[in-house]
Amino acid sequence: FLYFIVRRKLRMPPNTPGVASDNRLDNEVLNEEPLETLPPRDDSTAENSALRRFVPNIAMMCQARGRVYSMWGGDVAVLFVDMSGYSKVAAAMARHGPHALFAAVNGYFDRIIDVTHDHGGDVVTFAGDAMVAVWWVEDNPRASARLAARCALEIQRRCGTHDVPEAPGSSTMLTLRVHIGLSFGPVTVDVLHDPAVQNMQQAFPFVGGQACSDIRFAVDAAASGETACTARFLEACGGADAFDVVPVEPESPEHPPLVKLLAMHAPLIELAPGVRQLSSVERADDVEGVFLHPRFVELLKTSGPGAAIAELRYLAVLFIKKAADVPVATWFGQVLPALDRQNCSIVQILDDDKGVHIVAAHNLFVTDSSDVAGEAIRTCAALLELDAGVCVGASCGTVFCGLVGSARAARWDITGNTCVRACRIMQHAEAVGSGCGLDDSVFRESRDISRLTVLSSGVSLKGWAAPSDVYTLSDNFDPAAQHLYAPAAAPCAAVNSAAVRVARAVVESPDPVQACIVSGEPGSGKKTVFAAALRDAGFTMLLHETRSNDPSMAIAHTLAAWFQRSDDPVVRTAAVTLQEAMARGHSVRAHQRCLELVTAVLASGAHVAVIVTNAA
């Protein structure tokens, strides 16, 4: 980590507007060899050529020699294209598999990206149904802004709608449209690079700054088929006389002034030959590989060039916001190793209206855990232990994963309701002053919910079908509480019916205190069968792992550690007194207190199943 920070240097054009220099760094940095003297990029290998579309040109503005990167800053024009009608198309395509959805979206992106590239734009990122591109022409901000404006209006003219069959071969069409935002202003570009990572890519391009923050206000102000821009973008183009415009009433005093663009009268500025712009940035040899996840590179190799790659995977998605007032590189330098140790792959790092944030996921490229929700909980705990200033939202569910874009610009991306929920959960956690929020999908699916406690009950958030509880990490977690048991396989029907009868007999008994013990031959499926049946019957299942060297009454320690977090004060008090008796070595008293705890749990009306398994 120390090596990573020491090697960082800052390089940006002298007197770059809106970008503050760091006087802690040597002034000689500004006198380094200019980028245009770098050797031409070698496209002699098919691999380099195939990977080029996955790395934006603007990231190469940070490249020095080899794999050493420096910060770059400047004023750029930003274009944000957002699709309308995506949710309806996604719902229709979900029945036909991930390839159908990505084929529909990429067919539209292919047209949009062609127009963007024809106007000299550089595609920076994708986010589900959205795309961000930037323009920069050296010493000519007006040329940058007018190219972006002409591109936006041309996208509306040539690509305003895109019809998608409701089903393969269907004559019924669903229609995608776009609304577009434009902004102009200072950005900082950096390549966040750590060669020590083991489980993901080494380098991540990052573009952030005022223009990125303003762009969301512009795109939100544009209805389907419209284009809106900030007042600063309009000024960069040469003023309102260059367009037919309609003013937009600001929703809040904090929002930047906005207008809608109807038509453009000003001509594009003719550029002299050799003028540096993003479309002509040169690249050194073999740099793209460090920007791509190794497993994704393998996937590209096995799939072949031009393949349409799409998957439907069960993921734990984490939305990690930078909540500390520190440089992005410093913050990311702490968060990245923690995610790498947890094998939680970063999809991208962004700066938008939600601030600087990371989108990451467990099981993104390989199914390496049967407890994805538990992995998410442990990753959240690891991030909070860093004390690095994070706010995390997590959700589990089926996610569309695939190659988004075209042959000219593409990224590996994830999309779906799970990603949206993770974002909403993070925003809720931040609003209530918590550093972590997890939705009920994590609670339901995890074997490790002893680490969770309710943060907010009955929360209604945008896009949710019904109110739901939001959870956070428990402050008084005790590893002895172990994990909840989640069955890995569905039991056979005959045995399952017997298990259901037993569960129902306990639940529906007129006796308010009812308990039973289920035993059987090793390997007969007791845990799997009854865990599935009892979960359906509304039981909480607690796992106690036994070992040959366990002390007497080890299970009592598990029960005490778990029920100290009960909402019932009688149960909670019984658990505390049991824990105290065991801590003092009073075995007889501990035995009595354990029976009292079990009785209190049963009397409370709780339905609890303790699954005992051999951990040896």
UniProtKB/TrEMBL annotation:
One of its GO terms (molecular function) is adenylate cyclase activity. The lineage of its organism: Eukaryota, Discoba, Euglenozoa, Kinetoplastea, Metakinetoplastina. The keyword Magnesium does not apply. One of its GO terms (biological process) is intracellular signal transduction. Residues 77-218, 392-426 form the Guanylate cyclase domain. This is Guanylate cyclase domain-containing protein. Keywords: ATP-binding, Nucleotide-binding. InterPro entries: A/G_cyclase (IPR001054), Nucleotide_cyclase (IPR029787).
